[in-house]
TrEMBL record:
One of its GO terms (biological process) is cysteine transport. Its main location: membrane. This is Thiol reductant ABC exporter subunit CydD. Residues 34-317 form the ABC transmembrane type-1 domain. The gene is cydD. It is a multi-pass membrane protein. PROSITE patterns: ABC_TM1F (PS50929), ABC_TRANSPORTER_1 (PS00211), ABC_TRANSPORTER_2 (PS50893). The keyword Glycosyltransferase does not apply. The keyword Membrane applies.
Length: 567
């Protein structure tokens, strides 16, 4: 049993039939149709099984029938039981197919939307937890809860109809007490709402904490603080355990309450029928058969509704994750963000239909531009003209906002006040995808992925870059051999090597997309003087006919500048 989730109450009240989930999920409506058909067949099996059992027992004990007379019904009962087992396995197979399709569809949609949202607004650990474990938890919803919901709609109706024909007073008792089960379910759901919200928050906090911890473990070890984290983890996991147990208690209690309500109702039916049997109201083989039929069918009417409550608890986590995925899908994409931001070093290849780049090397102007970060004082105001087709080096002091300024040109940061213009046109009036298409960018800390150096360099362009172009870019950047393995986050490369792989990426982009703007953030930060000189020499042809903006304090870099700017 998994912990509950915030929207338990809302969905419980609404029958937890999430239309958005079914709408988003390709093939889900077919699956619901399959569930309904299987549910009808299962209802028929329940009724037929009950009738055959009652008839067999009444025939054998009250009618004195021998084995030969009973054999056809015995075979019928065996066939019904076999059909129930077959239906259950078909249901399972259909559920697994549907769940797999829905999960991959949701993941794809969420990833596509995440690619179009402004970068840096989500915590990686939390998002990964949502897209992997959270969406996986939808299995319980599709494989168990939805079929149970269909059964809960069909079986009680079928059973009640048969009971009304066989024994109206018993049917009346069942009809009056059946609504108690969903009613109790909704009441319990309301009670658990706040607890479920806290539970989800603590699950997210745990994922958050672990992701940060794993990323920072080498540093923590170096400073002898790794051991201390055990205490912090103990606190976080303790909190998680406490909240999970509180919710599980509620889940067990709710199962108990539903069980009790159903048992009491069945007991009332049993007493009603039993009294009639004793008093002779239900006499002979037919009477016994009716009594048995009613007694066998009564619990079957409650069973699917109780199952809905139980399976809902199991599927609540998946629904909570789906709710968060819908929140991501509803987030507005950044203006013009229809294409993925492929200038980013970790960006996935975008669609091949790229907007046209700026026509030629532009003049870039910052007019009284101020950047800010939440909770921080605004950065100093900048007014700056970056001349077209020249190399400008930004030498402002550390923390003055050089990287922020470069990120702003890609649309990753927006100025609080003031403006940025390309050839006199305000950046806000340009298509961000077209602007990014015009820029080759080396960020200060290039993000490297698991693969070879060549794989990492190839990320620079949406299409598959030819080997020769990759080799040329690697050579120009003096990056390590194309076949060298790189682990996630650049593990296996020195900081200088990682920076040169990032530079090779920017150069490949400049070669293949002929980008008129080149932005380099500390391109030679970790290099020795000889390698730095070699890299800067290789850069010379790339600087021609391009507007080049470099953030660096290095003497050798300043030496190649047409202009130097500080603030
Ligand atoms: N994501 C962020 N959230 C909050 N503050 C930030 C963030 N990124 C940068 N800053 C702050 O904004 C200021 C400018 O940062 P930025 O990286 O642009 O400076 P920089 O001039 O490139 O520095 P350096 O030369 O050290 O690379 C710094 O004070 C930094 O702490």
């Amino acid at each position: 049993m998994t912990p509950l989730a915030p929207q338990y109450t809302r969905n419980a009240a609404a029958g937890a039939f999430d239309r958005r989930l079914l709408h988003r999920a390709r093939g889900a409506s077919v699956y619901i149709g399959v569930c309904a058909a299987l549910g009808l067949a299962q209802t028929a099996c329940v009724i037929a099984g009950a009738w055959l059992t009652a008839s067999l027992v009444a025939g054998a004990f009250a009618g004195g029938q021998d084995l030969a007379a009973l054999t056809p019904r015995l075979i019928g009962l065996a066939a019904v039981l076999a059909a129930r087992a077959l239906l259950a396995s078909v249901q399972e197979a259909a559920a697994n197919r549907a769940a797999a399709g829905v999960k991959s569809g949701l993941r794809r949609q969420a990833l596509e939307r995440l690619m179009r949202l402004p970068s840096g607004t989500r915590h990686t650990g939390e998002t990964a937890q949502l897209l992997v474990r959270g969406i996986d938890a939808l299995d319980a919803y599709f494989a168990r809860y939805l079929p149970q919901l269909v059964l809960a709609a069909l079986v009680p109706a079928g059973v009640l109809a048969v009971m009304f024909l066989a024994h109206p007073p018993a049917a009346l008792v069942v009809a009056l007490t059946l609504p108690l089960i969903p009613l109790f379910g909704v009441l319990i759901g309301r009670y658990t709402k706040a607890r479920a919200e806290r539970q989800w928050a603590s699950t997210s906090a745990l994922a958050h904490h672990f992701a940060d911890l794993v990323a920072g473990l080498p540093t923590l070890k170096a400073f002898g603080r790794a051991g201390r984290q055990a205490g912090a983890i103990q606190v976080t996991t303790g909190e998680y355990r406490r909240r999970s147990m509180a919710l599980l208690r509620v889940a067990f209690c709710s199962a108990l309450v539903l069980e009790l309500a159903a048992s009491l109702s069945v007991a009332v039916v049993a007493v009603t029928v039993g009294v009639q049997l004793v008093e002779g109201g239900l006499a002979g083989q037919a009477g016994l058969q009716t009594a048995l039929l009613v007694l066998i069918l009564a619990p079957e009417a409650y069973l699917p509704l109780r199952g809905v409550g139980t399976h809902y608890h199991a599927s609540a986590e998946g629904l909570a994750a789906a709710e968060r995925v819908f929140a991501i899908l509803a987030e507005p994409v950044e203006p013009g963000g229809d294409a993925a931001p492929h200038a980013g070093p970790a960006a996935l290849p975008a669609a091949p239909h790229l907007p046209p780049p700026l026509r030629r090397a532009p003049t870039i102007m910052f007019r009284r531009t101020v950047f800010g970060y939440p909770g921080r004082d605004p950065l100093p105001e900048i007014s700056l003209t970056v001349p077209a087709a020249q190399t400008t080096v930004l030498t402002a002091r550390s923390g003055a906002g050089k990287s922020t300024l470069l990120a702003a040109l890609l649309g990753f940061r927006r100025p609080v006040t003031g403006s940025i213009a390309f050839d006199g046109t305000d950046l806000s009036g340009l298509d961000p995808a077209a602007v990014r298409r015009s820029i080759s960018w080396l960020p200060q800390r290039p993000v490297l992925i698991d693969g070879t150096v060549a794989d990492n360099v190839r990320l620079a362009v949406p299409e598959d870059a030819p080997d020769a172009a990759v080799a040329k870019a690697i050579a120009a950047a003096h990056a390590p051999d194309a076949r060298r393995r790189v682990a996630a986050n650049g593990a296996g490369l020195s900081a200088g090597e990682a920076a040169r792989v990032g530079l090779a990426r920017a150069l490949l982009r400049a070669d293949l997309l002929d980008t008129p703007v080149l932005l380099l953030d500390e391109p030679t930060a970790h290099l020795d003087a000889d390698t730095e000189r070699a890299v800067l020499e290789s850069l010379a042809p790339y600087r021609e006919q391009r507007t080049v903006l470099i953030a660096s304090h290095r003497e050798a870099v300043r030496a190649i500048a047409d202009r130097e700017v500080a603030w």
